[in-house]
Design brief:
Layout: H1 60-64, E1 74-79, E2 119-120, H2 134-143, E3 160-165, H3 173-186, E4 191-194, H4 205-216, E5 220-224, E6 243-248, E7 273-276, E8 280-282, E9 293-295, H5 298-315, H6 321-331, H7 357-361, H8 372-377
Parallel strand pairs: 1-3, 1-4, 2-3, 4-5, 5-6, 6-7
Antiparallel strand pairs: 8-9
Helix pairs in contact: 2-5, 3-4
Amino acid sequence: MIRTKHPIRSVCAAAISLLQLVQARVPNDSLFQYQWPLKNTGGQLCQGCTVNKVGADMHMEQAWDITTGDSSIIVAILDTGCKWRLPDFAGRIWINKGEIAGNGIDDDGNGFVDDVRGWDFHDNDNDPDDIDGHGTSVASVIGSATNDKLGFAGVDWKCKLMILRDGQGDNGLLNNSAKAIRYAIKMKARIINISRGDTGAVLSTEYKDAVAAAIQAGIVVVAGSANDGVEKISVIAQLPGVIAVGSTGPDDRRAKGLNPGSVPSNYGDRLDLVAPGDYIPVLDISSAEPYNQMASGTSMATPHVAGVVALLLAQDPRRTPAQIRDILCSSADDLVGDPLEDTPGRDKYYGCGRVNAYRALSQVGGIRPLPPSLRQKLNGPIEALNLFTVDGRRVMKSVPAYGIKSFTFTEP
C-alpha cells in the first residue's frame, strides 16, 4: 500500500471555516489525501516529482457538495478492460439487467450472449477483464468506490462504469473500438471515455461514423490529446464534437516530461481544455497491493474530465454534448499555468483552461464560487509526501501502456 514516511501535518482551517460560502464534502477514503487532482494541498508526492501547488486541482470537495453523481449515468470506458473484482470497484460496475448470467442465451436480444458486465471486443467474449492495467487505472480515476473508508475516491461517486475491452494497443484496436462505440450507444451510455492518443492513425469510415452516431445520440465523447509533447492533437480527439483533453501536472503547468515520471502532453488549436494527468494515484493490477502506483499521461487527464461530465449530467441529464462542452470551457480556470503559454482566453497549450468541477456545477442555481485567494487560505501547507512500497523503498510506478512511462525505485 502507499505509505508516508512522516505523518501529514495539515494546517487547521477551523478559524476561517465560517467564511466558506459553500460547504466542502470530504470523502473518508483512506488514500484521498494523495489524490492531488481532487484537492491539492501542496507538498511533493515523491522524490523528483513536480512540486504541488496549493489549489492546482479541480475543486472537487466544493463540487461534491452540489452533487456526487447519479447511478443512472453510465460511463463507457473503451480501453484494455478492468479488474472489476477489486474491492475499490464495489458497486460501481455497470450491470446489464436485461441479461441472465451464465445461461448461454442472448436474453435482451442485443446480439451479445451473457454480456452482464460489458463486452470484450478484443477476444469477442463476455469477460472484459484487464491483463494490461491501463483500463483499470482509467476506471479508478472516474469511479473508485467513494466514501467507503477504502483506497481512492472517484471523481463521480455514483455513476456506473461500462467496461468495453477493445484491445491492448494493437493495430486492430480502432476496429474493435467502432464496435464498442456502437454497443455503448445501444446500451444507453451517456459518456464515452477514450484514453488513447493516435496522432498518426488513419481512422476508418466505420470508426468516424460510430463516433458521430454517439454524439448524435447525446453521448459525450471525451478523448486525450496524445503524449508526444508536440503540436499535434490525436486524430480521435480532433473528430467533430469530441472533447479534446490535454494534461497538466500538480503545479498547474502543461505536462512536458521534464521531471522523472512526467509524460509530455500534446497541444494545438483543437484542444478544448486540460486536466490533471501527471503523477495520478491509480489502482494497480500488477501486485498484491493495488495502491502502490501512479500513472501519467493524457490517458489520466481524460477520465478526470469524463468524471466531471458524469456529475454535470447527474445535475441535469438533458444537457447535450455541445452544452457540456460549453460549460466545461466557460468554467475552466484560465491563466493558472505557464504564463508564456497560458495566455488570456483560449490558447493552443491549455485550450480554455484547466477543468474546474465546482465552477462547472455552479453555472446554475446561483451558487457563488469561492474567490481563489480565500480558497487557498482554506488549504494549509503539508510536509512533502513520500510514497513507499511495503519493503520501504520509495517508488513511482505506472502502467507501461499508451505512452505512459514506467518509473524507477529510489532508496529513501
